[in-house]
Amino acid sequence: MPRLDHRTFVNACRDERGVGHHTLRAYAQDLRTFARFTATHRLSDPLSKDDILAYHRHLRDALGAKPATIERRLVTLKSYFAWSEDRNSALPSPFADVRISVRIPRRLPRPIDRDTLRAVLQAGDGPIAVRSKPSADDTAPTSQNAVTVLIIKLLIVTGLRISELTNLKIRDVSPDGGQILVNGKGSRERIVFVPNRELQEEFRRHCEVRCNEDSLAAPLFLNTEGRRLRSATFRKRLRALSRRLGIEPHLTPHRFRHSAATLLIEEGIDIRMVQALLGHASLRTTEIYVRVSNSALRRALERVDVLSELRQ
Q: How many CB atoms lie within 10 A of CB 77?
């Protein structure tokens, strides 16, 4: 059976390429899946082109994996064998003559419509956060509701990924609450602005409270237990809020990110500025939001009304 040195590979991706935590976790999962396949089918080194093609069929037919998952797992595997061959030329990559085309359906993002966003912003008085353990501190759920709504507002105006928000430290926010230093994908830093004055003041007050409670290196957002608020916990709060408001499909942090990008493009913000705000490495990733913004196109066409102009 081939020996997959996936731990060393993952560590090299982290140390040499600055790959993010979530991507590293996906790499490890992809390589473990392939390791199980090689064990089940009693494969041995050196692996061949036919072994890779058989693994592709296994992912597609036996596991029923989605096209995007199949592509990711093959890309991870190809990167691993290129890295492995670079360290030991006696084991050439089995991908040398492999040509696999995975057709991935192009899905448009699903932003949250404006009426739903208004309903969400007005729903902060109801229960959102529930304490995981009994406590005598009855004010905690109320304060957690306020934190949840604050994060929702920040997602709407900044387009941040939820992991970027929940990983913020107190020191990452400017004293006036108007700027955030974000550590994004691939450890790329960027500055994100909070444009709304009322939200700036709300954000500043939250940061001031946290600053009085903890050191500047402490997490900015805490859960009901006083530890760093995790992305998964915030997603649970959004699902609870979705059920309470009858929102389908349910709210997710990434839908707020889609909404932020779509709203900005509909209001005429240059796409390159939106790219910088979202932290996209490629403009192609941002361009999808231009196609989503049909309402902006409709308003523009109604303003022009070419047929009426020709009748004059």
A: 23
CATH of 114-300, one of 3.40.1110.10, 3.30.450.40, 3.30.160.20, 1.10.443.10: 1.10.443.10
pLDDT in tens, the chain (312 residues): 566 778 899 888 888 877 777 788 899 999 999 999 999 998 887 888 999 999 999 999 999 988 889 999 999 999 999 998 888 777 788 888 888 877 766 666 688 888 899 989 887 655 454 444 444 344 344 478 889 999 999 999 888 889 999 999 999 999 999 999 988 777 778 888 888 889 999 999 999 999 999 999 999 999 988 999 999 999 999 999 999 999 988 999 989 988 888 888 777 777 777 777 777 766 666 666 666 555 555 665 566 555 565 555
- Structure tokens, 90: 């006696």
State the pTM of this model.
0.67
